[in-house]
Amino acid sequence: MGFLIAIVVWGVTLAMAVPFFTQTWWMPESITALGDEIDEAFMWTLAGTGVIFLVAQFALGYTVWLFGRKSAGPASDSHGNNKLEILWTTAATVIFVGLTFFGYSVWAETRFIEQKSMEPAEGRLIVEVTGQQFVWNMRYAGEDSQFGPTDINLIDDAAGNPVGLDRSGPGGSDDIMVPEMFVPVNREVEVVLKSKDVLHNFFVPELRIKLDTVPGLVGKLRFTPTKQGRFEIVCSELCGLGHYKMRSFLHVVTEQEYEDWLAEQASYLF
Ligand SMILES: [Cu+2]
Hints:
This protein has four helices and ten strands. With 270 residues, the chain is of the alpha+beta class. The protein folds into two domains: 2-70 and 84-111, no CATH class; 125-267, Immunoglobulin-like. Helix 2 (33-68) runs antiparallel to helix 3. The longest helix is centred in the first third of the chain and has 36 residues, at 33-68. The relative contact order is 0.14. The model is unreliable at 114-120 (pLDDT under 50). Bound molecules: copper (II) ion (CU). The site of copper (II) ion (CU) has 8 residues, from loops.
């Protein structure tokens, strides 16, 4: 019986490990240099925890097999081993603290940006993204690079003003509201995240970064896409009945295509 249980433990362990080794259902290819760094940190973490998991599960199966035999006699209990306790507590601490330092710089790169100004700095493109049940609203500052003021009393979804943009305010006349995000390749993008109602989460799997949108708070993420294409933006925080269909797209295009797209959007303004 002990051997049978051991076989089941080993079998389940191996079956769980197979998708990782063969990279079945794996992440899509990353489209930023930062994404590659995050993947590297991820792979080191996975390798470390994976080896420990496999060794522990095989030891578990072996123990069940060994002490499940009738000839093994009655089980004896142990009152612990201080040396072993110190050893694995220290090992676990070193591994966890080490992985934290390893991933710290790449994590910080996506988040620690100066939070003071909405003005684009040195060619950085700023896109304001407002989550709402169950759509993403993208706002571009337009030709003047200045976002117009908003007023909750002006919010009118039916009239195409989901964020309450004041068109008569400074810099507001040329702001562009769109349902999908277009950005030029190889240019730094800063996403300014807001929410109109509940918690949402801005997630583009290919970017390897995600952040909650929180009502009343402004979140920021930055990335520099290096590959062109069309990538899905999903809401990654259960936000209500329509959560499953809250999606949009990130289009990474050439600088020229971006300019053309922007000019076309601007031409729709009244
Ligand atoms: Cu949502």
